[in-house]
Amino acid sequence: MTKDIVQKKAAYPTELTEMQRRFCEYLIMNEGRTTRKDAAIKAGYAEGSAAQEAAGLIQNPKILKYLQTRSNEINRSFTVTKNNYVRRQQVLSQTLVDQGKIEKALGFENLIGKATGQFVDIHLHGNINDISKAEKLDEIKRIRELQKERLAAMKEITIKPDEEPEEILKTGETAESIESIDTKKIKKTIN
To answer: Rounded CA gap, 28 and 38, in Å?
Structure first.
């Protein structure tokens, strides 16, 4: 019977002393704004030997591992995602509302709506005189079709299970007469 010999890798202790941890935290939180010597001094090492201590600390494998792991954690927490962007805008908006500055909160509400896809900015660029009458009519038809699709999508979103589609329309028009709605009437209805 033979035994396989397994070589163990050297495992460095994962625990740091309090001074080592303070050194690492100060370096991470003040990255680019401090020196290693200053971090050692702030961590509690003697000023006279801080430079030597910092040089020794920065070569310590467990400190390097801690610095890498902690930096990754901090960087992940500051990553801008849709969710934390929207949450931040909500907090700012609510703070302004709590302070009674509702008008100023509207800007944040607008940003929240855009980020969540509820508001859409449409910018049309061009000169209406550069296209022919037939192209203008085709564009008007295309825009009306878009309006119909958006109205239908809004109806699907706002209809409650026990409501009829006709109850949703503010103007009293039926779903069949939506085709005849012009742009000005839609804007009045939305406002």
So the answer is: 13
